Amino acid sequence: MDLPFTNGISKVFIMAGSSFLKRQLVNLGDKTLQATHAVKDQFAIVGNVAIFIANGARETFSKQFEFKEFAYQCYKVGVKTLPLISITGAIMGLVLTIQSRPVLINFGALSMLPGMVAVSLIREMGPVITALICAGKIGSGMGAELGSMRVTEQIDAMEVSSTNPMRFLVVPRVLAAIFMVPLLVLYADLLGILGSWAGANIKGDLSFALFFSQAFGVVEFIDFLPAFIKTFFFGAVIGIVGTYQGYSAGRGTESVGIAANKAVVVASLWVIVVDVIAVQITDMMTS
To answer: Is 54 a domain residue?
Structure first.
């Protein structure tokens, strides 16, 4: 015969277990709903980016292309970035030379220093570091500029006045980044080699002509072409990410800073991703 006390305890445990199970099911349902919303948001972002790129590509081949705005953006993207790229390129070559010189001396291969620096700069260091600098300088500028125009409703005013903001604001900036980033990379490579020559002469005496003959004597066409081609994709990534983040910014004033920050972070990440893909493709082509 069951005791009344035992039956009461059993009922309490059953009710507590049932309540706990209900709470766990509710929490599981909430987490599942949150995860579903997160996945839906990610798909929405991918769809919005695809639509943004498609609209930009359509306006690129429009008969009413904004050549004046494109030239002005090339000036902003290219000329105004030259001082920063000049310092970066020279320091790249100088530091690489100073760090590599003692190691090459230990192996008795000091004569390989100009060629090693040239190949390193042309194939990888020059394009990637320059693109990351451009992502911070150009991408953030585009994000902040278009974000402020979105917050102050200038983009909305352009749409109301039958002016296509995609054609006037986005396309010239993206194309300017695509065309100017490769030129900035070439400029940074040249200054990097000049900085390397300066670094080689800190503790030595190497003539300008001899250094350049040794540097470019080992550089082949396959070293230059893939590195140069991927810089166009770096420019496209920087331009698309920067303009998208600014164009799709929110309405509050803090959205300008958020757009600029996201433009730098996302563009830098995609530059690295594109570089990894380009390196894999180049390795398959040369193997």
So the answer is: no
Residues 44 and 184 in one domain: no
pLDDT at 203: 78
pLDDT beyond 80 at 189:
yes
Tell me which of 36 and 5 has the higher pLDDT: 36
- 96 & 164 share domain: yes
User: How far is it, in rounded angstroms, from Cα 52 to Cα 264?
Assistant: 18
- For residues 151 and 258, membership in a common domain is answered with yes
The Cα–Cα gap between 181 and 232 comes to: 7
Question: pTM for this structure?
Answer: 0.82
Give the H or E element holding residue 215.
helix 208-217
Q: What sign for the dihedral angle of Cα 57, 59, 60, 61?
A: positive
If you search the block for the tokens 């008795």, which residue do you land on? 108
pLDDT tens per residue across span 9-61: 555 555 555 665 556 555 656 566 555 555 556 667 777 878 888 888 888 88
pLDDT of residue 105: 84
**Entry field: residues in the chain:** 287
CA 193 to chain centre: 24
> Residue type at 151?
V
CA distance 128 to 263: 17
Domain count along the chain:
2
Show the DSSP H helices in 135-170 as ranges.
140-151, 154-160, 165
First-to-last CA distance in the chain? 84
Domain that residue 2 falls in: 1-49
Is residue 176 assigned to a domain? yes
pLDDT at 4: 52
Q: How far is CA 42 from CA 39, 47, 48, 67, 211, in A?
A: 5, 9, 10, 35, 52
| CA–CA gap between residue 256 and residue 241 (Å, rounded) | 14
